[in-house]
Design brief:
This protein has a domain of about 100 residues. The longest helix is centred in the N-terminal third of the chain and has 26 residues. Strand 2 and strand 3 form a beta hairpin. It is an alpha/beta fold and about 160 residues long. Helix content is about 40%, strand content about 15%.
């Protein structure tokens, strides 16, 4: 017998179609009424040892932030990384300074074994990326600080009011 009875398949498909025709409008109406809560920013209780990095780019004319006439970061601009949010560094200098900083923290804690006993003592890297900074700048920063030995990297964003 080589014939397949398609009647049950058609019946199941019609029932599913009717269920979806009823369920989708109900789900959409429910989602439209959803309000995401907005939390007020509070001061971070971060450790002083955490490394703060800001990643941006030059503008279309090659000017950095803070220079007269700066028109904002450009996706085609040159990457700029600010160590502890103040000092601009290049790729090699970022690696060197991050490594020296982490090494000093580890030595102050009593060596690698001592700092591994209390994982809360291991510093983290917090990256604040400009909205127009291309991924190549962010990825290069991540690569350099991971190569320097930082195991945890996080991103800092500015919360946006979804109800505005």
């Amino acid at each position: 017998m080589s014939d397949i009875n398609t009647t049950p398949l058609v019946d199941v498909m019609l029932v599913l179609l009717i269920i979806f025709l009823i369920a989708v409008p109900v789900a959409i109406q429910t989602i439209e009424k959803l309000r995401i809560p907005v939390f007020e920013s509070t001061e971070s209780k971060d450790k002083v040892e955490n490394l703060q990095l800001t990643v941006s780019t030059t503008d279309a004319a090659g000017r950095s932030a803070g220079e007269p006439g700066f028109e904002g970061a450009s996706r085609e601009g040159e990457c700029r990384v600010y160590f502890n949010n103040t000092t601009p560094v290049d790729s090699q200098e970022l690696y060197d300074r991050a490594f020296e900083r982490l090494d000093a923290i580890v030595q102050r804690a009593g060596g690698p074994e001592a700092i591994m006993e209390d994982p809360d003592m291991i510093p983290q890297v917090h990256i604040r990326g400009d909205v127009n900074a291309p991924w190549r700048c962010i990825a290069g920063t991540i690569y350099n600080v991971q190569a320097a030995g930082y195991p945890t990297i996080g991103f800092i964003s500015n919360p946006v009011d979804p109800n505005a």
